[in-house]
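Course assignment 3, question 2. Fill in each field.
Student: A.L.
Task: Predict the tertiary structure for the chain below.
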Amino acid sequence: MRYAVPVAVAGVAAATISLVPALADSGNPNLPKITAEQLLTKIAASDTQTLSGSVKITTDLGLPSFLGGVTGGGSPFAGGGGGDSGKGQKGGGSAADPKAQLTQLLAGSHTLHVAADGPDKQRVSIVEKAAEYSLIHNADQVWAYDSQSNQAYHSTGPKSDGTDHAKQLPKGFPATPQAAAQQALKAMGTSTNVSVDGTAKVAGRDAYQLLVQPKGGDSTVGAIRVAVDSSTGVPLKFTLTPKSGGKAAIDIGFTKVDFGKPSAGTFEFTPPKGAKVTEDTAAGKAGDKAGAKAAPGDKAAGHDGLNSLEGLNVLGTDWNSVAEIKAPKGALPGSGSGSQSEPGGRMNKNVQGLIDSFGHKVTGKFGSGTVFSTRLVNALVTDNGTVYVGAVNQDALIKAANAAAK
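Answer field:
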């Protein structure tokens, strides 16, 4: 589940969190009529490069209650070590590591302060009652700081050539709203209904509401609403509702927004005195390798960049896409001699019982495995350690696993 849920959310809503959208005000402004095609063109043509503001993000994937307060350090979703356990010098053990911190956005409500000045400068701060976590990208430098633990994380990426900025960012770091929206539009194929569904007032600005709905199929996505600023074409609010109904699974939106240029100091960072700094010395090399594997325009760079993840293959297209992840030996319970297994790779009975309580066994040509379900994301973890995950129903996961087993 540590691998399945973060990757699934990235695959289903890669542009969702990256859009950094907004909380709607009351009111329906009277705006000129516009077609869906014209609104899509307006989004794609938006040239807004600067913004700052406050964002509220609420995520309700239907995770078990004891996992509702997802945090970096002790969470099964965390990619990093978190807490004071970090003695590694490559980012994995730092409480400030983005892989450990950003996963908290997978559950509950959070307030973010965001700023952007073109593709080379962005800042996101997650504001909690007694602490703040900030992630700052400035050219080839990435800094992250966790005030609660007084730990900082530093990464140096490849120098910008003016064409590919994504390689400089850790996975999940927001780029410009325009780039994220354009990426989302590319993911929409013939299996999608797109329409304009009225207007709204968002963060004090007039906006059109774009309604995106999958046409049948196996997707668990019911509808996506994107509030688009009527003046700039910038997405201001993103709401994703599951096919099963109920409240939104993902709701992200500006409560305040300003399209002026943020001050240069917004993107500067110096670790506070006494802060423990973890240097990610492997970041630049990893970025170069990723760029070599998938050059700009390469087919492998599609599927929202998921194919750049080691051991991952994306099956299917559009809304019915399923990510196949061949997890490292021992990374998943029962897939090898991990810390949760007994000698010989057998599952510890207590761990197996916990896993079984959240899923149910299925079989097929792939062998046997366990299906874990949420309101939006479903995952099949096979007994040989392969994970199939996506915003699709159980039958689609089994079908994908069977096809891959041929």
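Instructor remarks: Residues 310-404 form one domain. The mean pLDDT is 73.
Grade: pending
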